[in-house]
Design brief:
The protein is mainly alpha-helical. The protein has six helices and three strands. Helix 2 packs parallel to helix 4.
Length: 241
Amino acid sequence: MRKLFLLCFSAVLLSCILNAEAQKPVDKEKRANIIKLMELQGMTGYAPDTKGSDPLLKDLQEEQMDKTHELMILAYDKYLSDAEVLELIGFFDSLAWKKYKRVAPLITHDLMATSKALTEKTSVLLKDEKNTPVSKMNADPNSAMGKELIKLKEMRTSTALLRIRSSLSFYYSKSEGEYPKNLDSDFKEYLSPLPVELITGSNKVSPGFDGTGGWFYNPVTGVVGLNVKGKDLAGKEYASY
């Protein structure tokens, strides 16, 4: 009895939704076009689970689905013009779309195969370096995997530099316009440990740029940068980061 009550309540609730969404009747020709569009999209068919169900439940499922379809028709009518519905019909009924639906599983298969191959390459790269920091990882810089590793190092290095600069700005605001004399003891409260730049794998601090790795820092101006010679994959000088 409770089950029947819940089913009836669901039907009444759906009916209330329909009444709340009430709008002017859909033009007959537009309705036909909307139904055609829904069919092309695979949104009209349904297969109620009638296994072990009584006839009343089956009828109720079909009635609810019919009402759901009606809600969809009203929504399409509300948000799409006649011309847009026809344009969408042309798209979903096109040879290109039909072919795409046929080859979609093949595309997915190829993408999965490519992903698997990339994962295997990554596994080889990291095989004996599970606990090795990214800064210590190496790969042929001319290979696709090597370039991806370099790109990762450059991205993380750029982020590390941004952290240092943000922390320096915070220090400056708290110290009434002064920068720390060094990025070691005077700066630990704001950023510790000092991030490592992953191009050379160093976090040493030099008073000026000499390209020996790590960071360069001027305590008078607060200027800090990447103390590494050369250019990144995009052709930008590391020193200009």
